[in-house]
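## Example pair
The file below holds two records. Each record gives the amino-acid sequence first, followed by its structure token line.
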Amino acid sequence: MTTETKTERKRRLARERSARRRARERKRREVIGERKFKIKIGAGIAADIECITLAGGFEEQDEAVTRAIRHVASIARRSPTAFRKAMNLRSPV
């Protein structure tokens, strides 16, 4: 039997919890096929993402961007004409 102090036990349990959490996250990323997507953006796009995040009540900007992309892709699948019209840079926003 090892003599573990209260502090050591707390640290060990925290390490074990963290390891389980990391393993769950790793498995989730594997299941959904998660990939990292890096992009450079300007201040205007950053402000737009923040606006979408706040208006949608999202906790994270990643979630807001993901949902926006999924929604736009859905429009593109259902009505390519409507998608092209929405993406036309000359049409008023």
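Second record, same layout:
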Amino acid sequence: MVTRKTLKDPIAGIRETETAVLAQINSEDTRTLAVQEDILEKEFLEMQKVLLAMQNLLIHLYALVEQQQKQLELIVAMGEKRKLMESKQTRDQEQTRIDGQNSANVESKELEAYEI
């Protein structure tokens, strides 16, 4: 657009044109940045969802590990109890055998005493 001012001062016209071009570029850059901001915000929200899902998964995994730890402790305790019971049974059998031998020795001595 040619104005009287432009005709009187061509440099002012150039400045106005440059200003208009810069304003247009600025406007386009602003729109581009706004689009990029929207994209980044959506990506950020998606990352938040993924991180939250990962956090929930870790919480569940931790609970499973705790449960497995308790089960393992129970299995170990049962194994130890079985060992103790087997050990006691072995001692009881040995004691029964010893008692049987002692009883046989006592009877043998009593018989010897009667035979004499």
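Notes on the second record: The chain has one domain: 4-115. The chain is about 95% helix and 0% strand.
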